[in-house]
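User: Predict the full complex structure for these chains.
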Amino acid sequence: MDDDAAAIEGLLTAPVRATMEESTYGAWRRIADADAVGLSFGFPFPDSFPQAELTDAVAAVFEEEGPQALQYGGGAYANRLTEVVQERAARRGIDADDDEVTLANGATHAIDSVCRAVLDPGDVLVVEAPTFMGALGVFRTHGADVVTAPVDDDGMDVDALADRLAARRDRGAPDPTLLYTIPNFQNPTGTTMPADRRRRLLELAAEYDFAVLEDDAYGDLRYDGDPAPPLRALDEDGRVLRVGTFSKTVAPGVRLGWVLGDAAAIRAVDTVAPGGTNTFTRSVVGRYCDAGGLESALPDLRDAYRNRRDRLLDALDRHMPPDAIWTEPEGGFFVWVELPEDVDTTAMLDDAIDAGVTYLPGAMFYPDDGSEHCLRLSFSYEDPDAIERGVEALAETVRPRL
Amino acid sequence: MDDDAAAIEGLLTAPVRATMEESTYGAWRRIADADAVGLSFGFPFPDSFPQAELTDAVAAVFEEEGPQALQYGGGAYANRLTEVVQERAARRGIDADDDEVTLANGATHAIDSVCRAVLDPGDVLVVEAPTFMGALGVFRTHGADVVTAPVDDDGMDVDALADRLAARRDRGAPDPTLLYTIPNFQNPTGTTMPADRRRRLLELAAEYDFAVLEDDAYGDLRYDGDPAPPLRALDEDGRVLRVGTFSKTVAPGVRLGWVLGDAAAIRAVDTVAPGGTNTFTRSVVGRYCDAGGLESALPDLRDAYRNRRDRLLDALDRHMPPDAIWTEPEGGFFVWVELPEDVDTTAMLDDAIDAGVTYLPGAMFYPDDGSEHCLRLSFSYEDPDAIERGVEALAETVRPRL
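Assistant: Here is the predicted structure of the two-chain assembly.
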């Protein structure tokens, strides 16, 4: 192979080339390699992983199912995992028949499959601003025309969205095909959309005829307060596709997520997710859940994450200068910190790493630009004491800039 | 949710809707549920799966790597699997740097990702006729304009392809963007393309500027004869993307495949495969391979499949009526049987199931119609004695039709 020749480059699609050029890999690498307290990535803390239980589950699956667990299609435990998703959905008011649920290779794969099912290149997609940067990368590969709806302390500002949709119609711009939202403990702001906003959002979806992609990756990890109903539970005309994941409650390495939605939508998602999911891991996690592993782990996980969140918020209170403000999430992994407008958190990152902490700059969570003076902190990965040290280092970095 | 309402249906993309309508699920179900000798699907035989070794590998991975094996990105064994792919490629003359290989969730996912990287809707894609029906389903979701090249006893008939490409140019039809080929033990015909044809194919790819997707799912399972060089090993200007899988040599349930190609192409494939691969399974299979499991299993697998192939060919010789002809593959899982032109193997399937055998009708392997009088037999799944009984049942079914 001649390294200078790259006949293939001219054959790549335009959206793929554009996405490759937008890659933020350099910044990621710098953060991942930093010798500092990690408040940047939404990684679960390592002790949360059920290694012993998964090891037992592997042995049990092979003993009970033999080679079927490794064959195309898998055995009963691979399907048991789908039932677990249905059972857990039912407790939140979502009645999902067998043809209204499908598994995916993680939530990001689930998001991608939903996009493939409904988005043609150039279709309009609404996202919260700010929103999950991993999803933004996916949307780019689909060549979607991404427009934004602002987020306030109660998640997506649905009234502002209504104004924008009406203004688009007034000037003849196309209506959206899809809207992406993280209604619970939003990534990156940690905010949650109340029930009335959820209902109003679905009214807009009906009025403008768009589908809604509800990403509830963190819904199982609520530490205080009462949950609002999932959008899918309020969905009267079958336009919500709800995605979830075992990455935060079992482990990211099992790469298992799911999609719940109208039967036609689920069939479409299966059509564009060729090759299926990993039946070996499905079986192992299915057995783990069947033995009660997930249900008994969740209270401990919530306690551990609540403790981390409390330590983070307490440390912010004690160390941060008075000009900084931040959100107080009822669940999930993230706190959004807003600094005075003239602070550039992208430029500040190297100094923060030198001081001993990492975060993600606010601009990463926008399709174009925005919130250069904000940053996301994750309390999910580090020990509580390390979180405290990290906030001290952040405060040290911020103070001379105010 | 109201079952009658399906707002989402109107929002699905046109290629997805078309693919959903073309679904052959009914036929699949009938074959899968049949109480008959299974000569239909390319399933490995159950005893080939290394259950004990994988169980040991799970324990070893957790002991050596702890929670990192379950974290985003995984640990050293997850990356070890990539090295295994590189080492095995090197033995076939393919020099793959770290940025010239990526893992996928099985070969079908790998095929899909390559399509996403290079195919815009309406782009021309060349396939062998007949070809792997799973790939045809993938191509449909991309809205590709699928054109065919015939297959003879030496795989794709490259001279016929040259004629068709020239004729297309003469009449102003667009050149292809991608060509899909299974050069070794082709699915479904079992035929293999000799080295001179492979070189000629790459000359055509350069002349007409298309990329080549080389699917070598069965390349490790050669039972006689000498291998021809992989297309990727002959690829001088970086237009070949080579995909492979551990589904046939470890187990389908581990859902692990790979793509080898030019660095720009691999980066594009990674861009359109969001969410990554299953680091847990990657680690387990990485450890299995690292401990020598795959290398020591391969000779036994080849012996077992060679024995099954020989039993199938021998049974065909002894039982089938003289008007039937079939291929004699040097590897892989499949034999292609050609019956007289007036036999319709789709219509014959129910009688075959009644007689006690399943196969796949030839028409399944064409984008439109073709080879209604042919059928594919797979010798991979059943025991040798069952294979013999299956062929007897097939011969019984065929005989009154001749």
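The CA atoms of residues 48 and 300 of chain A lie 9 Å apart.
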